[in-house]
Design goal:
By secondary structure, this protein is α/β, with parallel strands linked by helices. The two termini are 30 Å apart. It folds into 2 domains: 3-141 and 182-244 and 409-488, Alpha/Beta hydrolase fold, catalytic domain (Rossmann fold, 3-Layer(aba) Sandwich), CATH 3.40.50; 256-338, no CATH class. The longest helix has 25 residues, at 247-271. The chain is 38% helix and 15% strand. The strands form 3 sheets. The protein has a 10-stranded mixed β-sheet, with helices on both faces. The chain contains 17 helices and 14 strands. Strand 13, helix 17 (466-478) and strand 14 (487-488) form a beta-alpha-beta unit.
Length: 495
C-alpha cells in the first residue's frame, strides 16, 4: 500500500426510553440529566495553524459516557469548540455544525475554517462544533501504523484475496481496540447523537439549530428522529443516505454518481479551450492511465518514486471532483500521462496512526459472503460505469468485511414531530453524496423535510452558490422554509 493510499484512506469515507412514536424512541427533555457547563478557554494554535486564524475561538472538553447504553460505565473527554455570536444583540441561539467524513474535525472547523459560514450566521449564532468520538481529539481510534500500511488493495481479485482481507480486518480491529481503549466499541452515530444532545444540554439550550455536512447529515437525521422536540432548525447539506440498502445498491449508487461527475468533467473539457486536454479523447487517455497503473507504471503524485494502484488513482480523480477542480484534474491527468514508471518502495511507518474510517463499520452493514458475490457486484459496476469502474467507496465495503454486524445498521428514517421542516440541500452533480441519495432521504422525511436543489457540481452546495447560501441562511435565522421543488442555478466552477 502506498503512502498516498494511506493518506487517502484516512480521508475517505444507551438510549433512555421515552415516548415511542412510529417505532422510534423519543426522549423527553426531563429524562436526561444535564451535564455540567463546559469550562471554556482560548483555543491554542496547533501544527500549521496561524494564530490570527485561531484567535477568538474557544475550546472545552465535555465528559460523556463511553457507552450511552451504560452511562455509569466510565466516561471520556469529547472535544468541543465555539465562536460566540459577533452581534450579541441580534443573537438567535446556538448553531451546531456536524462534521463530515467520517474523520473530519469540527474543532478544526471552528478554529481555522469559519469561512464555511456566512457573516450573517457568524453575527447571529454561537457556532459550535466538536470532534466526534473516535476522531482527532475525542479519544481517537489509533492503530499500529505499520499494520495500517499493510491494508489489502480494495480491488479483490480472487477468493484468496477475499480471505486475506477478512483476516486483515479482524487483526486490525483487535490492534485498534488495544490501542484505543473501550471507546473503540462505541463509535457509531447513535452514540454520537447522544453526544450532540449532551452538548445541547451543557450549553443550557432547550433547542438547537443544526447544520450537518456529508457524513454529518447522517448524524442530523438520526438526531431529528430521536429528539424532534429539541430541534429548532435542521440543515442537511450533501445528504448521506442511511436507508435500508444492500451492498449492491450501495455500490451501484456510489459508482453512478462518480461516473456522472466524471462525465461532466469530460463534457467541460471537450468544450473549454482552458482545458489542458481540450481536443483529446479524455476517456481513452483515462483508460490508458488505469491500464498503466495496473502495471505499476504510474507514480504516486506526492511521492514519485512509489507506484499508485488503479483504485487509488481513481481516488485521486474522485477527490478533485469535490470542488470540482476541473482545470487541475486535466493538468493532473496530463502529468500522469507524461510520467515515468516509479522505481522505489514505500517506507514502513512506525508508531500509531489514526483510523478514521472505523466509524463507518459501526454505521453500515454491507456484507459479501465470498469473492464470487463481491465479484458479481464489481462486474456490474464496471459494466454500468466504464470510466469510474473502480468506485472509490469500495474501500468502505472491503474495510468492513468479516467484522461484526454494525450496531447502527442502515434503515430508513422515521421522522415525526419537527415543528419546522428540515431543509435538505444537494448538488445535482455530487461525486460523493449523489442526488439520488438526497431525494431518497427527502422522501424519508416526507412533509417533515424540503429539498433545495443546486443545479451545479461538486460535493457541498452552501459555499458554491450565493442562492443556496441565502436560502440556508434565511432558514436558519428566521425559519423561512424555501418552497418545495425550489432549485438554484449552476455556477461554473472557478477551478
Amino acid at each position: 500500500m502506498t503512502s498516498q493510499a494511506r493518506r487517502l484512506r484516512t480521508t475517505v469515507w444507551g438510549v433512555v426510553l421515552g415516548v415511542t412514536l412510529a417505532g422510534v424512541a423519543v426522549v423527553p427533555v426531563s429524562a436526561a440529566a444535564a451535564p455540567k457547563s463546559p469550562h471554556w478557554y482560548d483555543c491554542a494554535p496547533e501544527g500549521k495553524d496561524k494564530p490570527e486564524d485561531v484567535k477568538g475561538s474557544q475550546c472545552a472538553t465535555l465528559q460523556v459516557p463511553i457507552d450511552w447504553k451504560k452511562p455509569g460505565g466510565g466516561t471520556f473527554g469529547l472535544s468541543i469548540a465555539r465562536r460566540e455570536a459577533k452581534d450579541p444583540a441580534r443573537r438567535v441561539g446556538v448553531l451546531v455544525f456536524g462534521p463530515g467524513g467520517p474523520g473530519d474535525s469540527g474543532v478544526d472547523r471552528i478554529k481555522t475554517g469559519m469561512g464555511r459560514f456566512s457573516d450573517d450566521l457568524q453575527d447571529r449564532f454561537d457556532i459550535v462544533s466538536f470532534d466526534p468520538r473516535g476522531i482527532a481529539r475525542s479519544n481517537p481510534v489509533r492503530c499500529s501504523a505499520a499494520l495500517l500500511a499493510k491494508q489489502p488493495d480494495p480491488l479483490i481479485k480472487n477468493q484468496a484475496d477475499f480471505d486475506r482481507t477478512v483476516r486483515y480486518n479482524r487483526e486490525l480491529a483487535a490492534d485498534c481496540r488495544s490501542h484505543t481503549g473501550p471507546v473503540y466499541d462505541h463509535i457509531d452515530t447513535l452514540q454520537t447523537v447522544r453526544d450532540v444532545d449532551a452538548i445541547r444540554a451543557a450549553l443550557g439550550e432547550q433547542k438547537l439549530s443544526f447544520h450537518g455536512s456529508s457524513y454529518g447529515t447522517l448524524l442530523g437525521g438520526q438526531y431529528a428522529e430521536r429528539y424532534p422536540n429539541r430541534v429548532r432548525a435542521m440543515v442537511l447539506e450533501s445528504v448521506f443516505d442511511h436507508g435500508d440498502a444492500t451492498t449492491g445498491e450501495f455500490l451501484d449508487e456510489q459508482a453512478a454518481t462518480v461516473q456522472d461527475s466524471f462525465g461532466e468533467f469530460v463534457t467541460w473539457c471537450d468544450a473549454a479551450t482552458a482545458c489542458t486536454l481540450h481536443g483529446r479523447d479524455v476517456r481513452a487517455l483515462w483508460a490508458d492511465l488505469l491500464a498503466r497503473a495496473g502495471r505499476g507504471e504510474i507514480p504516486d503524485p506526492r511521492r514519485p518514486t512509489v507506484a499508485i494502484s488503479p483504485f487509488f488513482l481513481s481516488f485521486v480523480v474522485f477527490r478533485t471532483l469535490y470542488e470540482p477542480r476541473w482545470r487541475e484534474l486535466a493538468a493532473t491527468l496530463k502529468r500522469f500521462e507524461e510520467s515515468k514508471p516509479p522505481t522505489g518502495e514505500p517506507a514502513v511507518p512506525a508508531g500509531l496512526a489514526p483510523n478514521t474510517l472505523a466509524p463507518f463499520c459501526r454505521d453500515f452493514s454491507l456484507p459479501a459472503r465470498d469473492y464470487a458475490e463481491l465479484a458479481g457486484h464489481l462486474r456490474r459496476v464496471e459494466q454500468n460505469n466504464p470510466d469510474m469502474k473502480y468506485v472509490p467507496q469500495l474501500i468502505a465495503v472491503t474495510s468492513c468485511l468479516g467484522l461484526p454486524k454494525a450496531e447502527n445498521s442502515q434503515q430508513d428514517l422515521r421522522i415525526r414531530g419537527l415543528k419546522t421542516p428540515a431543509l435538505l440541500s444537494n448538488s445535482l452533480h455530487d461525486p460523493a453524496t449523489g442526488y439520488g441519495w438526497a431525494t431518497s432521504v427527502a422522501s424519508q422525511f416526507g412533509n417533515q423535510g424540503v429539498l433545495l436543489t443546486y443545479q451545479g457540481w461538486g460535493h457541498g452546495s452552501y459555499n458554491k452558490s450565493p442562492c443556496v447560501e441565502q436560502r440556508i441562511d434565511d432558514y436558519l435565522v428566521s425559519l423561512t422554509v424555501p418552497p418545495r421543488g425550489m432549485s438554484c442555478p449552476a455556477i461554473p466552477p472557478a477551478g
